[in-house]
Amino acid sequence: MAHKHGTGREGIQFANTEDKQEFSKYPTKAGRRSLSRSISQSSTDSYSSAASYTDSSDDETSPRDKTQVNSHGSIDFCVKNIKQAEFGRREIEIAEQDMSALISLRKRAQGEKPLAGAKIVGCTHITAQTAVLIETLVALGAQCRWTACNIYSTQNEVAAALAETGVPVFAWKGESEDDFWWCIDRCVNTEGWQANMILDDGGDLTHWVYKKYPSVFKKVRGIVEESVTGVHRLYQLSKAGRLCVPAMNVNDSVTKQKFDNLYCCRESILDGLKRTTDIMFGGKQVVVCGYGEVGKGCCTALKALGAIVCITEIDPICALQACMDGFRVVKLSEVIRQMDVVITCTGNKNVVTREQLDRMKNGCIVCNMGHSNTEIDVASLRSPELTWERVRSQVDHIIWPDGKRVVLLAEGRLLNLSCSTVPTFVLSITATTQALALIELFNAPEGRYKQDVYLLPKKMDEYVASLHLPNFDAHLTELTDEQAKYMGLNKNGPFKPNYYRY
Amino acid sequence: MAHKHGTGREGIQFANTEDKQEFSKYPTKAGRRSLSRSISQSSTDSYSSAASYTDSSDDETSPRDKTQVNSHGSIDFCVKNIKQAEFGRREIEIAEQDMSALISLRKRAQGEKPLAGAKIVGCTHITAQTAVLIETLVALGAQCRWTACNIYSTQNEVAAALAETGVPVFAWKGESEDDFWWCIDRCVNTEGWQANMILDDGGDLTHWVYKKYPSVFKKVRGIVEESVTGVHRLYQLSKAGRLCVPAMNVNDSVTKQKFDNLYCCRESILDGLKRTTDIMFGGKQVVVCGYGEVGKGCCTALKALGAIVCITEIDPICALQACMDGFRVVKLSEVIRQMDVVITCTGNKNVVTREQLDRMKNGCIVCNMGHSNTEIDVASLRSPELTWERVRSQVDHIIWPDGKRVVLLAEGRLLNLSCSTVPTFVLSITATTQALALIELFNAPEGRYKQDVYLLPKKMDEYVASLHLPNFDAHLTELTDEQAKYMGLNKNGPFKPNYYRY
Amino acid sequence: MAHKHGTGREGIQFANTEDKQEFSKYPTKAGRRSLSRSISQSSTDSYSSAASYTDSSDDETSPRDKTQVNSHGSIDFCVKNIKQAEFGRREIEIAEQDMSALISLRKRAQGEKPLAGAKIVGCTHITAQTAVLIETLVALGAQCRWTACNIYSTQNEVAAALAETGVPVFAWKGESEDDFWWCIDRCVNTEGWQANMILDDGGDLTHWVYKKYPSVFKKVRGIVEESVTGVHRLYQLSKAGRLCVPAMNVNDSVTKQKFDNLYCCRESILDGLKRTTDIMFGGKQVVVCGYGEVGKGCCTALKALGAIVCITEIDPICALQACMDGFRVVKLSEVIRQMDVVITCTGNKNVVTREQLDRMKNGCIVCNMGHSNTEIDVASLRSPELTWERVRSQVDHIIWPDGKRVVLLAEGRLLNLSCSTVPTFVLSITATTQALALIELFNAPEGRYKQDVYLLPKKMDEYVASLHLPNFDAHLTELTDEQAKYMGLNKNGPFKPNYYRY
Amino acid sequence: MAHKHGTGREGIQFANTEDKQEFSKYPTKAGRRSLSRSISQSSTDSYSSAASYTDSSDDETSPRDKTQVNSHGSIDFCVKNIKQAEFGRREIEIAEQDMSALISLRKRAQGEKPLAGAKIVGCTHITAQTAVLIETLVALGAQCRWTACNIYSTQNEVAAALAETGVPVFAWKGESEDDFWWCIDRCVNTEGWQANMILDDGGDLTHWVYKKYPSVFKKVRGIVEESVTGVHRLYQLSKAGRLCVPAMNVNDSVTKQKFDNLYCCRESILDGLKRTTDIMFGGKQVVVCGYGEVGKGCCTALKALGAIVCITEIDPICALQACMDGFRVVKLSEVIRQMDVVITCTGNKNVVTREQLDRMKNGCIVCNMGHSNTEIDVASLRSPELTWERVRSQVDHIIWPDGKRVVLLAEGRLLNLSCSTVPTFVLSITATTQALALIELFNAPEGRYKQDVYLLPKKMDEYVASLHLPNFDAHLTELTDEQAKYMGLNKNGPFKPNYYRY
């Protein structure tokens, strides 16, 4: 979810103020990916026995204070409870079923072990899906050490399962800020082992290595970074001439973008609204603010289910697309009184203002699919004349003095982060992209990549897509020699110029 | 959900065996409606504070053994805990927001009190939505006594709220079979009050009166029945010459049918699948068995979200519709190996056989939207060579000896009964239809209705629809005198012949 | 097209004034079917060589004054030019390709010749598709004599081809009123041959037999009537106790209705608008008046192509359906200023008034898909202050004094009659229905049908559908014995109760 | 139509063989735009009185041999018949109604006359829509001389109308090759007038100036080129270091691309198939080869109308999109036997081979929406064992020895070029883009543009879009100062980075 944010870690400060400055100018136009099944557990508690096992754990001792040993005798890890390994294993196995692209990658590349010799230090969400990635990297020959990029998102039982198989994992759900940096440090700073590849999600690991162990970069062949935030930091380093190894921006690959935004939002907008409000879509008047990929996904789904959708836009090109796709383009203020649902997808701030909230009709639902928690001016609702009533988890009724209620979801944070789930298939695409980027950087001949930020080569983007086609029983056509010549293409791709819009 | 069943009350026996016989021949082609938010609480536990209040109640005393008094001093009720009344009131108020048709009916009819003198005994699910109906009947002049038609579906806090305002309610969640009939009896058999109208959902109340208090029918002006099962019983009584009062079949009104089947399934199929499996719909191969209203609703939604849908049908007319609507019509056995999801919507039995289950691919999801739990041959899966693994509530993995897993939802029972919710709006249509049927029967001049089963007059069906149009800010056009004359229509309807197909 | 009219034969009077009176009260709510490729030739002139051959024929002699002989020496026919037979044959062969249901019927029933002994007199449009029907009847054993139900719709070359093979046909394009009745008379009144079955489209043939040769009815086993008008006449005769043989109303069979209205309009609305105006649909604001089957078909297609559609309705049930399907329900006057296209589908009159025409914006397109030419008040536009400019065939610009132009299509007559074509497949369904109705009536045991008007038995309706499924490579599922028993159904149908809404 | 070709001018040779060589390597992956209402007149003959006026003109004298004077006394033009001016004027006026963006541009820019001093020589199709462009340029201050880029596409009456108002036009329908170059020469080579801007469509005018009047480039401030072919030529010149003025590639602007491909094909695929075959779309099995913008447009429309669509692809990314959009991805050979319609949209050659044509079923329709006439191997069908039968204009039946017929449309040339029309709105977008490019190049400060090929600045692309929003009554939202700052955007745009995919 390139456009999504919500680390819940606002309190964490960079040690070096200068650095913080460097990044603080960035409008955090999006955030690091943080969606996974475990994160939205609140909505699925009743379904997941593994999750409830985790939740019911009332061991209050900090993992840092416990001594744990896995069944192989290793103590080089730090997780909540190594005994949860078996439960975690089952979650990983279930995830594997929907991540056949990675399994297939294991098979294809296993003979040659393209990551033999790679020592990867990773900092990502630690979920069943990430575990499938890590175990794929290991199967391809890599040694891995891992930590969490988010203090809340770790699936403890999955971390346990990884630790049990011998991957040094340092992560648990509910870390303190101090824990967070301690875990990263334990990952990087270990006797007799030095990373030569970095896989990062958000840039904190990279940041830590820069600050504490700059010499590590002498051996590092490259950084793979997934999040918008982390990518932004890398570009800033590059601009400042301080990037000392090649870096791969996997966030902007075509496949990832389309799945994270268009396709994923098409599905999650319905799910998020249903789980929170049980709304009937048919005949509802909905305004979607913003007709980018996220907005397009939302509009498609809502229209298909019988909602009457109009959009707001600042960009005339997107507005013209909306017209052609059958949506009225309006100003929010013109329609606000009639709307049953207001959804923001702009990446901007204060798209829904207090004045507009004042004019909404009774029962209007307001939520955000776009970015962080800036789009709806939620702060303006925290005023004495309004009553907040929490009616369900993630659902507040804001009550005006005249009794009018506005239904605010997830307090204006990302709806699909908070109230729906992300299909494993989407995570599979991201994980496969990361694996390929690691292989590419690790094996690239000297000189192919300089100290700069690169996009994944289109051919590898195409390869990621091709690995996922069997899920759909899709059969690709191959160019004949004659056709390839006629088109001026290599039969194995890439098939499109870089600027192709898809 | 006229087509849906699942009372969870298979153990309940009719006292009179003969009678049981009478009904047992009926294939229970559908069942009594039992969907409401509270019923599917398992899927929304984490959202509903009221519900969790109820759930956390660990008072194990039977309500029959407790003495409770409401704040007006009345003891003529029996609920779980009268102290929950305030919570129930809030649930009712929230429901009122989406049931403006009933509120509007209250206002329009309040002056004339069309139910003044009516003494209604009711037996329905007891939920916030039913409460809005009951309080509407009271506002229109009726006296009501109420009991539950299902031993599991009562929202205890709502029952408490009703009891608190003075409606004698006899119902709680988790009644025994004996409790069930005791409650009905307490409703009917009370000193100094005799019902003159019956509102039934499933026919059990009607049955009880027939058995125990047949003299009551001397005063009863009519029965309003909502469920397929109850309607079927009435038609059988009528055929047998034993129906001794007019009865109104509200199950088959156009508006109710379309909402319960086509529109509601269009929304709930997505919801049910997401909440249980987090499936991504895009590109999934789905076979829908049956292209009636339920199947049409499912197909529309799934296709719209990017699934590739084919259907099976026995009826060539429905099959031809499927073709024209863009769905391949296949035999299940031809496609079963390729399918990602199999959904039954036929009302028939053994539509998915063990042999077909054997041939499904790994990970195939199987569920039922149609009728009862007969459509999938679940019994055949309870054999020793197969392993069942419960992975979430309502989700079982059936594991074949070779490791293949089939994902069975709700053990083959109705998916949207078990795993999704019904929008209040749908319930509003049913409740309004019931209210109008009661008004019609109670006020009909002598002789208009004989001892027979009647459909709601089309004009009243149209009136129900018109009461719900303001929810959509829909503006009806009125015929001019000239136009009405040209069409040979009354300006106030009815606008269509009875056989019109909509 | 049950809802469509436009015979262009307003001048034709019934001989008997009394009779005329009888029918004149009828609001001609629909008309006789008159769509076929030949009728909309104006739109396809350039494509059809056969058609242009016909058009270029400048032989001005009346067929009645010519002596023509077919190659078998027969002179028992009257067509424009027997020499066109070969061209007509090719048109028939092309039509056969899309009418495989009739071809299949020929094969299935040919052994037993179910129409052996049938002497059918027919009065329908004479087109390639009708020819396939007639030749099917002959193949099944019938003798046929045929005439045209419309003075403009005959494809001369097809009539020639039929005459050449020995079917006595009396019809040509551009008959006078006198010719029309002369042809009917020649069909009925012939030495040594007396009809025992009547196939009528509009009721004129039936009328003529009633007036002139009532004794014919002694031998007639039944009438099959297709048009709304003809069916209405039959019901009136029946009510008046004057219907002296059984009659079959094939207009109201499910299959025919769905194809003639919903599916056919879904396709023809786009075609009709494109051929006349080259309009781009994307983003156009369209109001559709009426949300019956015709309106539903139009709305579906237009929305799918990116138009923004709202509807007007008088019936709250249809209005509620429109809401749930995602269309705003408005009054025409509220939106008329913003609309790019106005389409009427009501069956009513003066749905679009002069006042509304006055308020339309420049360039607004107005057309009728509903009924006759009454829906738009075209007469009101024929006033001196407005200028009419014919810009294309079927397209008029009405110019207001201030320069505003309204684009009126087909002068308010049926758009898809005038400006688009009807797929052969739709005609195939009607023709198959007619054939089966003839077989049923001719073979029914004495007493099954009385002197009344009957609907096609549902089982035969299902059979018509099943004959068309192979076109879609659709595979029906068969009930098992166990399933049939469970459902209480015969394995061969009928599968639904009569009131089923599909 | 960036992807479309069909100049009908294969015979025309470049004088200089070397040059020809230079371009002949180019696979003419697309062609110059040549769609407009007049071009597809064959399909609309019966509607357009103006067109028929032109057609009926049987004056066989070459315009070059006639002396004509317009009403102002000028003889500086050469058209078919100056007397047709009045008819042409009406066509122009009708076109103006749908080109309000240009009219609006006239109004906005008229005060400042941004093209005052511009002397534009143009070579484009000469149609009513082009006339609106030319007259807009004049209104903005330019002097124009014009000629046709295609020997068949000139609307004679429009050329006359332009000549009558004083624009020197040299063009008529049906020029010989010699006429073609003579007209270009007369445009460029005139006493006392030297062009300082070039507007070209296909590159022939540019070529001619290069060859004959290279000195003209000393004064020329820029070239605006619209076609793929012309743009390709310019890039080649630039690569070769021979481009001596700035050039603007308007073909690749976002707005133009989306409309020419996605949106326009969405509409024209239905239109083209209907006008040629009267096919019913519902239930048809269709395979679309290629899922680029053209394929996406075709698939969307066909699926929406009830066709069952599958696609073929060589590019795994596009294939994955197809999966997510609900289309099965297959190899053509796997499905060819079942298909009712085969549509090519690849830009490649021999996508449909003779072997596949041999395996198609009877009645299968084959057509090309992609590129030139290479996609279907039509040549392979010209073999003695197959019979060709022309059944309508643009429709051939290819008949196999066993009687099987394949329906080939437009002999494999572009379906929407040959058999449907292009909405004026699409042409308006192109024309507006051309006008803005001319203004930009003419007014750019010295040095902004070098001797290179430029894309239209995104801001102007956005401006083109914004000029077309009023057609849809679309209301853009404006950024607040705070929001613009937060996003780091200028309030007036551009709003997206160059690589944004829309």
TrEMBL record, chains A, B, C, D:
Residues holding substrate: 127, 201, 226, 256, 260
Family as reported in the entry's similarity comment: Belongs to the adenosylhomocysteinase family.
Protein name per its UniProtKB record: Adenosylhomocysteinase-like 1
Top-rank lineage group of the source organism: Eukaryota
Cofactor: NAD(+)
Composition-biased stretches (Low complexity): 36-55
SUPFAM superfamilies referenced in this protein's UniProt entry, alphabetically: Formate/glycerate dehydrogenase catalytic domain-like, NAD(P)-binding Rossmann-fold domains
Record's cofactor remark: Binds 1 NAD(+) per subunit.
Annotated binding of NAD(+), by residue: 292-297, 313, 416
Chain coiled-coil ranges: none
Keyword tags: NAD, One-carbon metabolism
PANTHER family: ADENOSYLHOMOCYSTEINASE, S-ADENOSYLHOMOCYSTEINE HYDROLASE-LIKE PROTEIN 1
Disordered: annotated segments: 1-71
Keyword Transmembrane helix applies: no
Gene Ontology CC terms: cytosol
S-adenosyl-L-homocysteine hydrolase NAD binding domain sequence ranges: 261-422
The keyword DNA-binding belongs to this UniProt entry's keyword annotation: no
One BP annotation, GO: S-adenosylmethionine cycle
